[in-house]
Every structure is written in C-alpha cells, then in structure tokens.
Amino acid sequence: MFLATSGRRIVILGGGEQAAQKARLVIRTDAEIVVAGFEFDDELHALADEGRVRLVDAHEIHADLFEAAAITFVATGSAGADGALHALAKSLGAPVVNVVDRPALCDALTPSIVDRDPVVVAIGTEGTAPVLGRQIKTAVETMLEPRLGALAALAGRMRGAVGQRLSARARRDFWVWVFSGPVRRAHAAGSERRAAQILKARLEQGPGPSEGSIAYVGAGPGEADLLSLRGVRRMQEADLIVHAPGLAPEILELARRDAERQVAADPVAAALAAAREGARVVLLVPGGAAELPSALRDADTLSVEHVPGIA
C-alpha cells in the first residue's frame, strides 16, 4: 500500500521479532514510528537509541497514540494478544489496522516490496499466497537494475526544467527517451555523471517537430494476454487509441490511462486524421492484422508501423 506519512505516525503494537520486522519495513518513511509493548527486542532498543523509533510501555496505549496515525500494526506473535490489541486499537480510533498473518483482521494488507527508492514496486496477493508474492518479488528484483532509484531521483531533480522547456507531448517523449535509451544505459553501467550529461545535452537541444504516427496493431482473438509485447508498448506510448465497436474492454485496459479512446465506424480514416494533426495513434483491429490497409501504405508523410497480432 502507498500511504502519505509526512507529519503522521506509524504505530506498532508488540515488542518482539515480529514488531522488529515491521519496524524495518517502515523505518525509511518520514513518519514518527512508535512501538508499544511490555518488553522490547534488542533491535528495537538499538533503533530507539538511534532516535529512529520511540518505545512506549503498553500501559500507555491511549486514544491519543492513534491520532494522526497512518497505520497501526499489531505484531505480538500471539494470536490471542493480537486479537485483543486489534480490538483495543479499533476501539480507540485507529483508522487503519494491520494484524500480522491475520487477513480477516486487516483493514489493509502489506505487500512484498521491491525497493529502488524513490521507485517502489509493491506485490500483493490479498493475504492469500505470501510465498507467491515473494517469488514474484524475486523476479522483479532481477528486472530492475540496483541503481534505478538514483536515475529516478535525477529525473525528479530535472522535472522542473523539463516542464518549463517542453510541451506536454514533448515531455512525455523526452522521458520515454530517458528511461529507454542512452541515459538509462549509461546510468545502469555505472556512468551516472555521463548519464546526467546526456540528459542535459538533449534537453538543451529542445524538442524536434511533433510528427504524427500510426501503429497498426492486431488485437488478436479478443483476449488481452494474446496481444504482442510490442503492441502493448505502443498502447502505452499512444496519445489516441482508435478502434471499431466491439473491442474487448480488457484490451483497452492495457493502454496508457490518459490516452484518449475513440470508437470509429471508419477507424483507418479516424486514425489518419488524428495522426496528420500530430497525434501518436494506435489503430487496434481484431485478429492478426496480417496486412496494412492500402490507405496506410499510401500515407507517405506519416510514420506507419505494422504490429501484427495472433489471428
């Protein structure tokens, strides 16, 4: 889950190993972390000595402890104690409570996390299969280079300058180029200074003219998981998705959320009109889209890409 923690508190009820595990989970947030228990794990004592958590005696659990609390974790390791503390926290006004390994008592569930601060990927199974969540986490860990967070931080520092110099369309193109081109490759190779130089040099050049394009994408037999990877990428990059009536809604869910959708009786004509105005268009058609329509083959002034699908 992603919660706003600035100026708020995270409460952990329990003082043993489970409580320490939750403290490790939230220690990198900017929340005040309060751990309430009768006895405390050595790790929690060490965190308290460093000023990273505040330890309070469980006898001091009162309603004001939960004021401005983003979330309360109940983590004693005892089913009976967990149940009692859950009831106590809710009765004292705790708005969001998570009881470790007790999904039925949880207002929110904590996912497995891939942390490339400030990039965070959360994997949840709604408490049904935590082992599967960890397996997926391992797979995602191998996909993302260890220093990806530092590249995202660089992008964050440059966001204001990019916003001042480039239009909305040009900004999107610029960031696609940053995260899929030479900037990311240089950064992943350890040349962070070179990556920053490439990014800034490209920004100084300014955007080229906006040119419309059409990706003619075969949507396959109507199931989202049968769309090609290239087709999905083009849908994520598009300004406009054009399709005829009757396309499966789950396929459209793969598109960038702020891309426009247009249902057209003549999708080819609609796509051509939008592309000639500078839009990046995906024209989705049922089946394999084995051949380009003649109108697209003859559109010499436009960039047209053919992305066949499964027939």
Automatic annotation (TrEMBL):
Protein's UniProt name: precorrin-2 dehydrogenase
Any matching Pfam family: NAD_binding_7
GO molecular function: ferrochelatase activity; methyltransferase activity; precorrin-2 dehydrogenase activity
The organism's place on the tree of life at top rank: Bacteria
Source species of the chain: Limimaricola hongkongensis DSM 17492
Coiled coil: none
Keywords: Lyase, Methyltransferase, NAD, Oxidoreductase, Porphyrin biosynthesis, Transferase
GO biological process: one example: methylation
Top EC class of this enzyme: oxidoreductase
UniProt-listed Enzyme Commission number(s): 1.3.1.76
InterPro entries, sorted: 4pyrrol_Mease, 4pyrrol_Methylase_sf, 4pyrrole_Mease_sub1, Met8-like, NAD(P)-bd_dom_sf, Sirohaem_synt_dimer_dom_sf, Sirohaem_synthase_dimer_dom, Sirohaem_synthase_N
Residues covered by the Sirohaem synthase dimerisation domain: 147-203
Catalytic activity: precorrin-2 + NAD(+) = sirohydrochlorin + NADH + 2 H(+)
Tetrapyrrole methylase domain boundaries: 214-310
Taxonomy of the source species: Bacteria, Pseudomonadati, Pseudomonadota, Alphaproteobacteria, Rhodobacterales
Pathway terms, separated by semicolons: Porphyrin-containing compound metabolism; siroheme biosynthesis; sirohydrochlorin from precorrin-2: step 1/1
